Amino acid sequence: MKTQKVRWGIIGGGLMGREFASALGRWFVLEDFPIGAELVAVCDVQESVREWFRRVPTVGLITENYRELLQSSSVDAVYVAVPHQLHREIYLDVLRAGKDLLAEKPFGIDLEAAQTVRDEAARLGRFVRVSSEFPFSPGAQRVWELSSTRLDELGHILEIRAGFHHSSDLDPDKPINWKRQMKTCGEAGVMNDLGLHLVHMPFRLGWHPRRVYAQLQKIYTQRPDGKGGMAPCDTWDNALLHCDVEMDGRDVPMRLETKRLAPGEVNTWFIEVLGTDGGIRYSTKEPKTLWTFSRGQERGQEQGWTRTDLGHKMAFATITGGIFEAGFPDVILQMLAAFVAERAGKLEGRLGCATPDEAVQSHQLWQAALQSHATHCAIEIGF
User: Fold this and answer.
1) Among residues 138, 188, 121, 107, which one has the least CA distance to residue 290?
2) Other C-beta atoms lying within 10 Å of the C-beta of residue 380
3) Is the bond preceding 106 in cis, omega lying within 30 degrees of 0?
4) How does pLDDT run across 108-164, given as a tens digit for each residue?
5) Where do the domains of the chain lie, and which CATH numbers do they carry?
6) For the whole model, what pTM was predicted?
7) What residue spans of 99-241 are helical by DSSP H?
């Protein structure tokens, strides 16, 4: 029985804004979820985008001025998906208007912006979380459950890998966009764009790098500007971060990978934890598959990887049958359910959305990675 309802506004109705609206439109599929949610207001600067949202029956306010949305007493919480250079100003305005906030990563174009927003949210007592949906997929939840409650089953941890790969920039004739320019995406480039997705779970597990050595790549330095000319493309395309994480008094290697130039990858998020006795691995490239490793408990017993076919078992139960596979709209819905549940104090031990502190920590890591690449040295990090 739903006894409460969160009334949402969206600022930035593009690709992710529409996914957000779709998830809210499916809210009724959540089983025995105690809190309702609906989309009531949308802001976007493009008329064609605003027109799309007119099909959503619960939306009563559609505007090109986000301050008009923030003035509405009908809005309780706001999801903001805008270019990175706008994060600080708009996020602060949301908080000062008395609204709670689901922010898009990277939570500010740089470390200073992220710290400012985090500190203002704390001062005002607003509930703020940061979007990171992939850890809410069924396979990622299995990795979370084992790593958070039964990590000792893996023995001594040997290494951790996490990454996010896609190949959208392999085409040199793809026109420039805001994510490919430092002034709008930020100096950290691909790390700003993709990085929080892959550190969300390790950071929540307490796996904070104390040192990083980074290898960064810029392959295409200019792209078509869409007007017959060329524009500078000055952000990092790929980033490999080789980190040390202290576990049980030992340094454990953790490799973090963010790539826009990953041949063959469309949009692949993955995590792998390997130990002396066992291991676990999940990738959205095989969304129904979980891999677990065992070296065998008896002397001489063969080691091996076991493949488990996953069904639709989610952190927040839905009407969808367990035999069906989960997709991107499902994990968006799960992330929003986590936000709403935690906001109401009903998360009940589940994995929550990324926090402002974790977003700030990610910026600290990207800043150290930039310094490492510039100096060709490993950089110590003090979280």
Assistant:
1) 138
2) 11
3) yes
4) 999 999 999 999 999 999 999 999 999 999 999 999 999 999 999 999 999 999 999
5) 4-130 (3.40.50.720), 134-316+355-375 (3.30.360.10)
6) 0.95
7) 111-124, 138-149, 182-185, 190-204
